[in-house]
Amino acid sequence: MNTANPLLSQPAEIRARFAELRQAGKRHKDAAESLGLTEGMAIAAHVGAHDNLIKATPLRAQWLEILQGVQACGPVLALTRNESTVHEKTGVYNKVSGSAAMGLALDPDIDLRLFFTKWHAGFAVFEPAASAANPPSQSLQFYDAQGIAVHKIFVRDASDRAAFNALVERFADANAAPVQYRAAEAKPAIAADSSIDAAALAADWGAMKDTHDFFGLLKKHAVERQQSFRLMNGQFSQPLPLNTVRTLLDEAAMDETSIMVFVGSAGCIQIHSGPVRRIEPMVTPTAQWINVLDAGFNLHLREDMVAHVWAVQKPTSDGIVTSVEVFDHTGELMVMFFGSRKPGTPELQTWRELVARLPREAATAAA
Length: 367
What we know:
By secondary structure, the protein is an alpha+beta fold. The chain is built from ten helices and 18 strands.
C-alpha cells in the first residue's frame, strides 16, 4: 500500500469511509485495502477522541509482557494470517516466554513462535456489534512496519472481559506519538540456480539432525526455500498438484490422522496440532477457499492463490520428517503441514503414508 496516500493526513475521512465499508460487510483488511491503505494504517486513524464507533487504543511496545498478561483473560481467539491463509485457534495463552526479540507460547491450543523485531505497533480495538443484542468486538491487534497484521487476539464468550479491560488499561500508551509506517523493502534477488553448489547442498541436507537446521542450511548455501526444493527435486523434494491441500485435509479427516498446520506472518507462526474433521470448500465471486471449521480451530486458505506445492523430506536424529509446503504466486509460504510429533519421537507412520499416496501425476515443477 502507498504510504504517500493523501488519506493518511485525513484520519477523519479514513474513519468515515472505513465505517461505510464496514457497514457494507467488508472485513477490516479488505476495507482498508479498498482505501489504498494497509489495515494498520486504517486502525491507527481510529486513535484519539472522535465520534466513530471503532475505537483504537495504542499499546506500549512491551509485546512479551502483553501476551503473558493475556493468560488472565482465559480462553481467547488467536489469529495469524498471511495474504492467502488465515489460522484461528481458541485457547489460553499459557507458557508464554521469551525476550524482547523472540518468544514462544507452548500450550497445546495456543502454540506460537514470535518474532518481536517485526512488531511495530499494537492497538486495543473496540467495535460495537452490528446488533445491540450482541457484545462488542474487543481485540488486541499487532502490526509490522508496513501496517500488515502480524497477530491478533479476540475476546470470546468464555473470555474474562474485566481482565481484558484491565490488561488494556495496564499497557495503554496515553502519550503515544502517531504511528509512522513505511514502504516495504524490495525482496533480495534470488541467486541463479547455476550459482548454487547442489552437491554440497545435498550433502548438508542429508546430514541434518533437526528440522530447525534447515534455516541455517538455506542461509549457508544462499539458497531460497523453493529454489532448494527445485535443486533437490527427486532426492529430498517432489512437486505435488495444486489441489493437494484439499486432498490432504480430506484424507487426514477421513483417516483421523493427527496433523500439524503452520501458518505464518512476518512476526508470528501459529500452529495447530491434532485432527481435522469438518472440511468445507467455499466459492465466492472473487475467491475459492478451502476451510477447516472445527471447534477450537479454523483454517481458511485461498485455493485460487496456490501456485506451487512440494512434499519435502528432512533427515533428523528421529528419522525422516515429511512436510507438505504450499506457496503462492509471489513465492510466499502459505501453509506447511506435518504429522503431529514431539521432539525425540519418530514421524507418524499414518502421516507418512498419507503423503505417499497424494497424487503426483498432475504436478509440475516450479519455474
